[in-house]
């Protein structure tokens, strides 16, 4: 999570507070752990993350072996095995609350359809629960290595030309400003340690997702959350 993400979260919270109806769920404020994550990431930016010193293929970089060694050294600070566990923080907001808070600003007549589709299965819930994942991942170990992540623009939302332009532009920016591959490689290593670690995390977080999905289904059944099912 970077300061830009924080600004987006704060903007979302401001917008949501204006649109929020009495008694609706509020987006939680950033807690101490999330503030610390932001502070750490501010100190670990590569120059291509800044518009002050943008990326240029003509600019000399630190050698690949040096960057690889820097990534490998990160294992001492953030052991790869530390990514294997998932222990929900005591202050973790209810997943249903995070999902409902994320509906602020959406077309209200479509929200029950969204909830109904998320309630269909744990995997469907996971796909729609980006806000839940963002909160959870901000409470897991971080290396400080930063990358850009871009999503796709669905063709049925735009004209074909504009869709191609948007996707191409975003991909170009993401790839030209991607993280330090050599440093990432140094951290990951060539063994199966990180593979096994991520598999353990996936299993643990899968259990969490099933629990969160069950909570959403219960909320729908109890009438606390409106849903249109079977669509």
Count the helices. How many? 10
The amount of beta strand, in percent, is under 5%
Give the end-to-end Cα distance, rounded to a whole number of Å.
34 Å
| Helix and strand composition category | mainly alpha
| Domains, number | 1
Descriptive notes:
α3 (64-77) crosses α9 and α6 packs across α10. The chain has 231 residues and is mostly helical. The protein has one domain (3-145, 180-221). It contains ten helices and no strands. Mean pLDDT is 81; it is low at 1-23. It is globular and about 60 Å long.
Short description:
With 231 residues, the protein is an all-alpha fold.
How is this fold's topology laid out?
Layout: H1 3-19, H2 32-42, H3 64-77, H4 95-101, H5 111-118, H6 122-128, H7 130-137, H8 160-176, H9 181-188, H10 193-221
Helix pairs in contact: 3-9, 6-10
Characteristic key phrases:
231 residues; mainly alpha; 10 helices; 55% helix; 0% strand; disordered N terminus
